Amino acid sequence: MLVIHLRTAIALALVLSATSTLAAETKPVKAKPNEAKSGDAKPAKTKASRTKTAAASDPGKRALPATRIDSLRADLAGEDDAAAIAAAAALGASGAANAAEPLAELLAAGAAPGRTEATLDALGKLGAAGALTAPRVFEVLDLYAGHRAPEIRQRAVRALGTVKDPRATTTLLARLGDAAPGVRASAGDALAARRDRVAPVRLFALVKKSDPGAAGPLAALAGPDLIPQIAELAGSVDDGVLATTLGEYAQRGDVPDRLRLEVVRTIAKLAGAGATTALVEYIASVPAKDDRPSKREAQKLLDEQGGGTK
Question: Of 5, 27, 77, 186, whose CA is between 20 and 30 Å from 196?
């Protein structure tokens, strides 16, 4: 019966979505305002000022002076571990386009675990700033994603998730099968951030095995058609994992409230503190002035369970 309700909700949501799209398409297009007269035009920026502005808005276009790069490269390769780790951190925090090359060089040559971890973390920071432009970065991170030490693999996977190279997706999907839970979780998070379309199938398989690290990424990527299948797992997987998956899915802004209402009811039928937490977190995620039906239902169910937030 629960699955039928969910499928009915999905069908209604899709119909409403199509109706609203059609209405939007038939609205008249407003005429564009007249363009400014030539006498009102602002002075054009010089080439130098345009370049400076672009560099300021794009961290990946900044560059460290050659002398600074040489100094940090020497520290990375020197005998002082503390200095090497500090150099890696400085390069990672710089957001500079030329900061990745010395880090990639160190990984290619091999280093002690402490330096390796700091270097991988630095590459991850550069990736987050859009500054991973060194040509060998993917190859090095791909190699370390298969390192024998789980903590090294996890850091490599996190950094790899920031690389725009499409080949990184293949490695991240492969790491969903890693023996270490932390590596699988980091791979799932990276794939969710990349909005990968293949990942939901593999993440669903992990949730079926009660893998907690797959719950959040699956919630972020699952389409409405997958929700009934997730709901059917009740009783066969860990209730906490299922509650987390459904709870985080309910918090997504793109979920129709008709479907969200059924998801909330499914969560309430699960046992354990995880279900209560999921309902509380869902209510907290909704703006105070938003009196949507699913929020009222979640509050009612919590009150019936004695775990109300009022």
Answer: 5
Closest CA relative to residue 149, chosen from 114, 109, 177: 114
Give the integer Cα–Cα distance in Å for 176 and 145. Answer: 11
Res 176 pLDDT > 60: yes
Q: Is the pLDDT of residue 34 over 90?
A: no
Q: 266 near 231, Cβ under 8 Å?
A: yes
H helices of the chain, where?
Answer: 2-25, 47-57, 66-77, 81-94, 100-109, 113-128, 137-144, 150-160, 167-175, 181-193, 199-208, 215-221, 227-231, 239-250, 257-268, 273-285, 293-305
- d(Cα 190, Cα 187) in Å, to the nearest integer? 5
pLDDT at 50 > cutoff 60: no
CA-based angle 177:181:182, to the nearest 5?
110
CA angle (224 as vertex; 219, 228 as ends), nearest 5? 85
Ramachandran sector of residue 21 (left: φ over 0; alpha: ψ -120 to 50; beta: rest): alpha
- DSSP codes, 104-151: HHHHHH---HHHHHHHHHHHHHHHHTT----TTHHHHHHHHTT-SSHH
Domain boundaries, given as residue ranges, for the chain: 63-196, 198-310
Angle between helices 167-175 and 137-144 (to 10 degrees): 10
Joined tokens for residue 118 = 């700091």
CA 231, CA 33: separation in Å to the nearest integer?
A: 51
How far CA 254 is from CA of 13, 40, 227, 241, 260, in Å, comes to 11, 42, 14, 22, 10
Gap between the Cα atoms of 296 and 161, Å rounded: 38
Instruction: Please tell me the predicted confidence (pLDDT) of residue 305.
Output: 85
Whole-prediction pTM: 0.78
The average pLDDT across 154-165 equals 96
The superfamily CATH assigns to domain 63-196 is: Leucine-rich Repeat Variant (1.25.10.10)
- Tell the residue number behind the tokens 């990672």, with chain if given: 92
